[in-house]
Amino acid sequence: MLKLTELPPLSLYIHVPWCVRKCPYCDFNSHVSSGGIPEEAYLKALINDFDLDTKYGQGRPLRSIFIGGGTPSLLSPQFYRSLLGHIKRKTAWTDDIEITMEANPGTVEQNSFEEYRKAGINRLSMGIQSFDDQKLKSLGRIHNSAEAQKAITVARQSGFDNFNLDLMHGLPDQTEKEALLDLEIALSFKPPHLSWYQLTIEPNTEFYNRPPQLPEDDALWKIQESGQALLKHHGLQQYEISAYALKGQHAQHNLNYWQFGDYIGIGAGAHGKITQLNADEPQIKRYQKTRQPDAYLNRIGHYNASSNILQAEDLPLEFLMNVLRLNNGVKEALYSERTGLPIETLEPVLSQVRKEGLIEVTKLQATEKGLLFLNPLLDRFL
Fold first, then answer.
1. Which H or E run contains 125?
2. Phi and psi dihedrals of 273, rounded to 5?
3. End-to-end Cα separation, the chain, in angstroms
4. Nearest CA among 256, 315, 215 for reference residue 94
5. Pick from 379, 229, 260: which is nearest to 330 by CA?
6. What b-and-e string marks burial along 277-303, b requiring 16 or more CB atoms within 10 Å of the CB?
7. Helix/strand/coil (H, E, C) string of 284-333?
8. How does pLDDT run across 67-113, given as a tens digit for each residue?
9. DSSP helix/strand/coil, 98
10. Three-point CA angle 161, 162, 165, nearest 5°
């Protein structure tokens, strides 16, 4: 039996499954909205879905809400005003709740940005990916560089001073100079948070079936080193493998993921992770909602596609694969607080990898060497 005595912080993830065009690198649950988006029907389904999942709150307030996709900015501000209003009536929120919406340039106008703020959204995550028109075309994006820069400017003018810019590097035929220019343009807008990560080829994507020519490993390493130095020079500190932020501007929703917190997931294909103390015995479970939008809309009152209770032998890896992404790791005590297991269940592997200089001695934190070999390090705890 897991010795869980306290519930972790609680967040909410809302998935919007529609987009204008499916990008060739994307393996998320997104579907082209060729026949229009059924806003009213989806709103009703999300409200029903949320009401069924409120039992997972167990008295906790929501600390963050993240609206992802797909392209959430395809839905109207009124949609979010109604949805967030319902959620607030049903649950308590922390005073400083972070409410993030992903937005793609070209899908939002100035009046929409202002209306999204009025609807309750207080943080944007803007999917820029690149400021190079040719690279954007190869990535299948629907915007160009000028539209991306205009969208950032308009968002700031509309009062969004808390925002993230999403950029990729290691793009098809990308040089170090091109990658750094993308960063320099992004930094000119003084973003408080920046997600900067390498393009990877995932199964079940167009790029997987027709791989583009990506930079060689040596070139990728140079891009990574130079880019991190540039970000640091501008005051954005790396706090996770692909996340950089000014002091005090860390993404609270993502931090809750990485610190093995709980989150309710609603919407087509959404995932959730919940700690339950009111079951026959304490348990941690993961679940997923029906992926296909049409199927989701037709499953009134029953949206779960699958769920599983995490077994004690699964929890060490589940915990470490999240917290070891963080540059500063976490205190050892958090392992027992969030898994219900004693720290001894990580032995003898933990002591061995510490001897090898892969994990810090006083914390559950990957060393600089450990971050370079993070996947093999995690495999040791299988």
1. strand 123-129
2. -140, 125
3. 20
4. 256
5. 260
6. eeeeebbbebbbbbeebeebbebeeeb
7. EEEEEECCCHHHHHCCCCCCEEEEEECCCCCHHHHHHHHHCCECCCECCH
8. 999 999 999 999 999 999 999 999 999 999 999 999 999 777 766 99
9. strand
10. 105
Residue 110 is predicted with a pLDDT of 63
Radius of gyration of the chain (CA): 21
Backbone φ and ψ of 262, nearest 5°: -100, 150
CA dihedral 29, 32, 37, 42 (to 10 degrees): -10
How far, in Å, are 131, 195, 279, 372 from residue 150 at the CA level? Answer: 12, 19, 51, 37
Read off the pLDDT of residues 38-72 as tens digits, 9 standing for 90 and up. 999 999 999 999 999 999 999 999 999 999 999 99
Encoded tokens for 312: 């004690």
Between CA 204 and CA 210, with CA 208 as vertex, the angle to 5 degrees is 130
Distance CA 222, CA 144 (A): 26
Burial 23-62 (b: 16+ CB within 10 A, else e): bbbbeebbbebeeebeeeebbebbbbbbeebeebbeebeb
CB-CB neighbours of 308 under 10 Å: 10
d(CA 283, CA 4): 8
d(CA 314, CA 286): 12
Distance between CA 70 and CA 49 in Å, rounded? 19
Residue 337 parent element (H or E): helix 333-339
Of 129, 112, 133, 130, give the one whose Cα is nearest residue 121: 112
φ, ψ of residue 91 to 5 degrees: the values are: -140, 160
Identity of the residue numbered 269: G
Q: Which helix (H) or strand (E) holds 245?
A: strand 243-245
Predicted confidence band at 33 (pLDDT cuts at 50, 70, 90)? confident
